[in-house]
Write a structure and sequence with these properties.
alpha+beta, seven-stranded antiparallel β-sheet, Alpha-D-Glucose-1,6-Bisphosphate, Chain A, domain 4, globular
């Protein structure tokens, strides 16, 4: 099935850390929570659960599709409960890690989004990849302003 790439969100960020150092921030729940969400249950193997509680109200849910250590993580994505335009598992997030310039270029592509859902997710992924960069470089991203239940996701 072909997709209109204009519906995809694409974010690229260079991180001053090796792919081996960045990868655990995508596959280890404790490190994942340093940059996104307030609770996580993840099983980073193909078919494994991807579940992140964003703020005490909104929950992102999907399943891992592909996990290549230090190179790539692919999982499906959507939102539990009503009120969100993206049901669980209906879109796909691909994160590629490429060694470049003594660090890592992280490329995130969220495919299958439409209209306002695309715009909301573009803002969200921009916010969260910036937090990931800080955490993977050994910094402290601080409290996430989007982790408040008053700030809706999706």
């Amino acid at each position: 099935m072909s997709r209109d790439s204009s519906d995809d969100v694409e974010v690229e960020v260079w991180i001053a850390a090796s792919p081996e150092a960045v990868f655990p921030f995508l596959t280890d729940p404790d490190r994942l929570l340093l940059w996104i969400g307030i609770a996580a249950r993840i099983e980073p193997v193909p078919g494994g659960l991807f579940l992140v509680g964003m703020n005490g109200r909104d929950v992102a849910r999907g399943a891992y599709v592909d996990v290549v250590p230090h190179r790539r993580v692919v999982f499906t994505w959507g939102w539990e409960g009503g009120g969100h335009g993206v049901p669980p598992g209906t879109t796909t997030v691909t994160i590629d890690l490429t060694p470049e310039k003594g660090g890592t270029t992280l490329r995130l592509r969220h495919a299958g989004l439409r209209g306002d859902d695309r715009n909301r997710h573009a803002k969200g992924w921009g916010h969260y990849t910036a937090r990931l960069k800080i955490a993977a470089e050994g910094g402290e991203p601080g409290p996430d302003p989007l982790a408040s239940p008053e700030v809706p996701h999706g």
